[in-house]
Design brief:
The chain is mostly beta strands and 442 residues long. It is built from 1 helix and 28 strands. The longest helix is centred in the N-terminal third of the chain and has 17 residues.
Length: 442
């Protein structure tokens, strides 16, 4: 900032008197300054030598915006505040503006005019103030608008190419003031649109779409202040599946450990055919699926169950899909199963008792088990010749995997009492079924 000082006429006269005195006598004598009407310093006159604000703020900038017009400038060391003045711009010329009015007084080098009427052009200028009431000259006036008008929608969106590398789209500007374009896609014409990228050109290649999935695309223009246009026409495009295409990573939806029983299930995108899934596990997460030592099993389905050891709760698991052309997918997210203490199975009830010659045939209902319960593996039949049978006073037991049992070698005419309990793979046993009785014949 240059420090200009303007000499007043009285000061010029004083200097001339000094020169004249030197020329005549060789000794300088200061002559009394001449006084003229209005020669006293005025605090609001930036040309006064005692005014420290002799320059306007530099770097004045006006940026149009959607919510406000943003003003900024460089601060002056002598200034304590700044006046922002605004006028309606009546034409395109620098002087075609209405009368300026004080809009705000602020302490810093910026101001956001959010009171501007939408889509009306304004002219702005700023000057500095100090604590003594001095003012600087005004900055030059600059124009700005709170722009809320969206650009016209792009036209003629076209799918130019689709191959294994992606889908290439082109379009026309629509004669708008767009400075960039936003690309959107959806998995069907009625599905929600997702923003996939932006560009300042009239072409875009979507390389991130899932191979084999047909997307619906549209493009919208965005102007310099962020207003976004309506959508263009929509087109569809599909990234091509080839023999080299990798499947999408499986998504593990359930990982449970009930006692020692592990159950994993996952979903898989259908667009790249999968021939098998490999389950990996390790005691560190994420699971390193490149290490053969972490490989647990391979299955054709989307579920894996197994009985694991006592340390089963210490492992994390991940799944990798392999395509029909032996191309591996990325690994799924590594998951640690939710552990549940094993519970005894539910009780059954005997619905069929048929005595025979030296025998009794029993039939009972199978016990169901949920996804968070251990699998029922069999049933134990209890027998006694006394009523009120318990597991402790029983005289005979037999384990079977089915829901029917024939008790042979019995004494005819003797009444026998029976109850049945279910067994699960954790070795736990249910309560006894209600007691039944039968008397075989001789």
């Amino acid at each position: 900032m240059s420090r200009r000082r303007h000499l007043r006429p009285a000061a010029v006269a004083s200097a001339a008197a000094v020169v004249l005195a030197l020329g005549l006598t060789g000794t300088a004598h200061a002559a009394a300054p001449a006084t003229t009407p209005g020669s006293a310093a005025r605090a609001d006159d930036p040309d006064q030598p005692e005014n420290p604000l002799y320059d306007a703020p530099e770097g004045f900038r006006v940026d149009s915006g959607r919510e406000a017009v943003a003003l900024s400038w460089s601060t002056l060391s002598a200034a304590t505040a700044y006046e922002v003045h605004r006028a309606e711009a009546e034409g395109t010329g620098p002087d075609e503006v209405g009368p300026f009015e004080l809009l705000a007084t602020v302490p810093t080098g910026s101001y956001a005019d959010d009171s501007a009427d939408p889509d009306v052009a304004y002219a702005y200028k700023v000057r500095a103030l100090d604590g003594a009431g001095h003012v600087s000259p005004y900055t030059e006036s600059l124009r700005g608008t709170r722009d809320t008008v969206a650009p016209f929608a792009p036209r003629d969106l076209t799918r130019a190419r689709q191959d294994e590398r992606g889908v290439t789209l082109t379009w026309r500007t629509g004669d708008s003031d767009s400075v960039k374009y936003m690309l959107y896609r959806a998995e069907s014409p009625s599905a929600p649109r997702v923003k996939v990228g932006s560009t300042t050109s009239l072409t875009f290649r979507d390389t991130k779409g899932e191979p084999g999935l047909t997307y619906s695309y549209e493009v919208r223009g965005v102007d310099a202040v962020g207003n976004e246009s309506e959508a263009s026409n929509s087109v569809t495009g599909t990234r091509t599946v080839t023999a080299a295409t990798a499947p999408k990573a499986p998504s593990v939806g359930s990982a449970r450990l009930v006692g020692k029983r592990l159950t994993l299930s996952w979903s898989q995108s259908p667009y790249v055919p999968v021939s098998s899934y490999t389950v990996y596990r390790s005691k560190t997460s994420p699971v390193d699926t490149s290490d053969p030592a972490n490989r647990l099993a391979t299955t054709a389905g989307k579920e894996y169950t197994a009985t694991v050891g006592e340390d089963g709760r210490d492992y994390s698991y991940a799944v990798v899909a392999t395509s029909q052309h032996s191309v591996r997918s990325p690994a799924s997210a590594s998951v640690r199963p939710t552990y549940t203490e094993p519970r005894p199975p539910g009780a059954t009830y005997v619905h069929d008792v048929a005595p025979g010659a030296g025998s009794v045939r029993l039939g009972w209902s199978a016990v169901p088990y949920g996804s968070d319960e251990s699998r029922v593996t069999g049933y134990r039949v209890y027998r006694s010749t006394s009523p009120h049978l318990t597991k402790e006073n029983t005289q005979f037991t037999e384990v079977t995997s089915g829901t029917e049992y024939v008790d042979r070698g019995l004494t005819g005419g003797t009444k026998y009492y029976y109850a049945v309990a279910a067994l699960n793979e954790d070795g736990l046993e249910s309560a006894l079924s209600p007691e039944v009785s039968a008397t075989p014949t001789s």
